[in-house]
Amino acid sequence: MSRAFVKDSDENPRPEDELNLPPLEGPVLLTPAGLARLEERLHHAQGEVARYRGEESPDGKLAYLRALRELRLLEQQRGAAVVVDPAQHGEHADTAAFGAHVTVEDEEGNSRTYVLVGEVEADPAKGLINVKSPLAEALLGQRVGDTVTWRRPAGEVTLTITAIEYPER
Question: Of 45, 17, 42, 16, nearest to 28 (Cα)?
Fold first, then answer.
């Protein structure tokens, strides 16, 4: 490729360039518990930035920049946060919606509980499922006793909803 078509920064990216975050698209939906976890992470990131500030070694400078990027990302998410309190569902408490703890049973009788949360709060290993995921999309709007099909890359799974609960404050 001709040098005329290559920016110097393409060959030698600077760590500082990673501090420029893309803008968030829309609000960051969180449950009250998710907001608490986000604020814990924000506090931790502030400590990491303070810890590595002024480091002179290449590894120390890189650790500082990584911590600073994490802090900026968390600040951005906190600034766009919209807390949806699942305890406020009232007469719709029998329907799976944002913040619901949905217990399902598969065809083999295995039971699992998922919590329907926003993207920032999602942690599938802990059962916190992004409301935009195929599983959550199958569960949203359903009621106890309903059967849904979860379309996964590994194949479809039929799930029966056995409980829907919303946490109380």
Answer: 42
